[in-house]
Amino acid sequence: MDFLNAFVALANFVIVPALAYGSQLALGALGVTLIYAILRFSNFAHGDTMAWGTMCAVLATWGLQAAGVSLGPLPTALLAIPVGIAGAAVLVLATDRVVYRFYRAQKAKPVILVIVSMGIMFVYNGLTRFVIGPDDQNFADGERFLISARDFKAMTGLDEGLAIKTTQALTVVVALITVSLLFWFLNRTRTGKSMRAYSDNEDLALLSGINPERVVTVTWLIVAALATIAGVLYGLDKSFKPFTYFQLLLPIFAAAIVGGIGNPLGAIAGGFVIAFSEVGITYAWKKFLTYFLPESMAPDGLVQLLSTDYKFAVSFVILVIVLLFRPTGLFKGQTI
Amino acid sequence: MTRTIGLFALVAALILGTGFLQSWNSALIILNMGLVSAIMALGVNLQWGLAGLFNVGVMGFVAVGGLAVVLVSMAPVPEAWDAGGPRVIGAILFGIAVVVAAVLAWKKLGTGVRGWAVAAITLVGFFLYRALLDPAVDAIEAVNPAATGYLGGLGLPVLLAWPVGGVMAAGVAWAIGKTALGLRSDYLAIATLGIAEIIIAVLKNEDWLARGVKNVIGLPRPVPYEIDLQADPGFVETAGSLGLDATTASTLAVKLGYSLLFTAVLVVLLILAQLALKSPWGRMMRAIRDNETAAEAMGKDVTRRHLQIFVLGCALCGMAGAMMTTLDGQLTPGTYQPLRYTFLVWVMVIVGGSGNNLGAVLGGFLIWFLWVQVEPMGQFAMNLITSGMSEGSAVKAHLQDSVQHMRLLTMGVILLLVLRFAPRGLLPEK
């Protein structure tokens, strides 16, 4: 039995990757949940909004790299995030004016808006591929590791290494800052409070003189920012491919619903629940158990509950369990 | 009525035009997939148009239909069956038993213990299931992995796979409907989106079932092979008398054979769907769609009726999927894309006119035609746009490469335009 090595192995393969992935999902789910709370529909185009914002950031990163700008050990893409956000903001605000506003005025049923968002999804998908193509793009630079496995072993003398990628550390830090800013905005500023009021009770908010169009615009701006940040962080951590972003829709929705759709705190909790289950269930536990259990009980197989190809199944099963037993999610949904 | 006839005439003209201007082979390819698409659209229309159910898992049910073709029509692999066939069946039955036991435990036990009981049953059951299944899977996949490595099918006529595909899709739909129906409408959407991804993941990874990404090729066909036709002197003579060479005539004849089969299926299904729409049952479904509360107050069991129509619609998608795989002659799980198989079918239904069966069929043909033809049209337009640019410029190359992505954009724009300016579709519900 070797608890220290067991813990390091666990941290290396499960805790660190899941923390990073969970932060990315949480940011994505926050976007979905905000749209749900304010505009009252499930936005199927969210994955592609992320892809578009990230694409703008990738293009800006390449421009900066070509101009010789660099952040030293940090990825240049951090500097490009504002450009990405601006790009995403222009796109979603234009979409809102041209498409969504019409249905808002009509007071269309939410399900119609969902179908509309499906059309938007097609358009964004086509636009992104039109500009950057459907292939994998790598735009990460800077120092690759905060701590590499070898340094960690030399430092601690343990058999197991703990590698933390710069992008993983960065993801968690940026996500923390973003979420704190968002909560400060929602709870402390006038605009944030008006958004919460609008989400809580539309009629009452209108009566007290809140301008609904302003609330909607601010929401889209925040969503564009959240989507781009989530997308850039995911792209830095893994790589940027438009189709992968489209596929992220499922875990993101699962995170939002598991936490309680419409509830920002829930979205964050949901993101981590999904990420930890996904990584934990597709991780081969053999190494951990070999360290953790007495030698006589060491497992023969890989002790992998499901192959990594089934990671979607994990978010899905959690989703179904929550829908069956607690349809409102872990936190009570529907308000911010 | 004139509108219906006019629009169908337009579709016919488009397909015939393809035949005259491009080639009759292309026209028949479009027609065949159009027929299949029309059946998928009919299924989705049943769910959305008639009952207001939002199913975005069409791809999964189509893929289940494709799997049915392999399971029904391929010859069995006796060595693989000897290696682990019964054990795999046993493991799957055990898995089903575990789920049933968990459901029973939840229903019968008191509130205090049932959560723990269900968790224990599923956890222990899962490990036992894997212990039963894994060795059998390894044994099966080790049998001649380059050529088979799977259990094979039943070796039955391939036409039988079409109804079987429908039944299998219906089974999956029942399980998913049982959990997700009765909740909010967008939850059903997300649940179906998920189940579709899972079905594709299963098809890609469970090699013992249908060879995964190694694909099953050479599926039996309900129509003769081109080679056999060309070797048949009678056929060559007939072709010659029509002024065609034997090769072209044989490819056309095979495709025409599929067209006739598919048309027969579509006509039967369309008649059934029309009868259902006009029956008391159809009126009840529309009453539920338009006002659930009122229908419930009248004593209609809304969730049950929803489950029923959800299963029916998915069965149609499964059948269409089986037909499509038969047409392709191979099952390639890697090619199932949600944009193509789920969302495109939705565009067909919305554009055609939700709630109107003829509209769904029209949408199926029209949108499929556009999906195929937008690329050459885009190519043409792009050549025109870029004709002024210098040869070899990066912008020109990029623009010409991007033509293939025009489809998605066009489909999205068409969907948005129809939703905005003709929300009831080209052929509105009466």
Key terms:
heterodimer, A: two-stranded antiparallel ribbon, 14 helices, B: mainly alpha, 2 domains
Major β-sheet profile of chain B: 2 strands, antiparallel
Distance between the termini of chain B: 11 Å
The averaged pLDDT of chain B comes out at 89
Radius of gyration of chain A: 21 Å
Strand order of the largest sheet of chain A: 1-2
The ordered string of helix (H) and strand (E) elements of chain B is HHHHHHHHEHHHHHHEHHHH
Transmembrane segments (chain A): 6-39, 51-71, 77-99, 111-132, 168-186, 215-236, 305-325
Pfam family, one (chain A): BPD_transp_2
Protein name (chain A): Branched-chain amino acid ABC transporter permease
Subcellular location (chain A): Cell membrane
Structural summary, described in words:
The complex is a heterodimer of chains A (336) and B (430). Chain A has 336 residues and is mostly helical. Chain A has one domain (3-325): Orthogonal Bundle (ABC transporter involved in vitamin B12 uptake, BtuC), CATH 1.10.3470. Chain A has 14 helices and 2 strands, in the order ααααβαβααααααααα. Chain A has helices spanning 3-39, 46-66, 77-106, 110-132, 149-156, 166-188, 190-200, 202-207, 212-237, 242-247, 249-259, 264-282, 286-292, 311-325, and strands at residues 145-147, 164-165. In chain A, helix 1 (3-39) crosses helix 13 (286-292). The longest helix of chain A is centred in the first third of the chain and has 37 residues, at 3-39. The model of chain A has no long low-confidence stretch (mean pLDDT 88). By secondary structure, chain B is an all-alpha fold. Chain B folds into 2 domains: 2-76 and 152-421, ABC transporter involved in vitamin B12 uptake, BtuC, CATH 1.10.3470; 77-151. Helices cover 77% and strands 1% of the residues of chain B. Chain B has helices at 2-21, 24-51, 58-73, 78-108, 111-142, 161-180, 185-205, 207-210, 226-231, 233-241, 246-278, 280-290, 292-297, 302-328, 338-352, 357-386, 394-401, 406-421; strands spanning 216-217, 330-331. Chain B has a two-stranded antiparallel sheet. The longest helix of chain B is centred in the middle third of the chain and has 33 residues, at 246-278. The radius of gyration of chain B is 24 Å and the shape is globular. In chain B, 44% of the residues are buried. The model of chain B has no long low-confidence stretch (mean pLDDT 89). Chains A and B meet through helix 4, helix 11 and helix 14 of A and helix 7, helix 15 and helix 18 of B. Chain B: The chain crosses the membrane at residues 27-46, 53-76, 88-106, 113-132, 152-175, 187-203, 256-277, 307-324, 344-372. Chain B: Keywords: Cell membrane, Membrane, Transmembrane, Transmembrane helix. Chain B: This is Branched-chain amino acid ABC transporter permease. Chain B: It is found in: Cell membrane. Chain B: GO terms for molecular function: branched-chain amino acid transmembrane transporter activity. Chain A: Belongs to the binding-protein-dependent transport system permease family. LivHM subfamily.
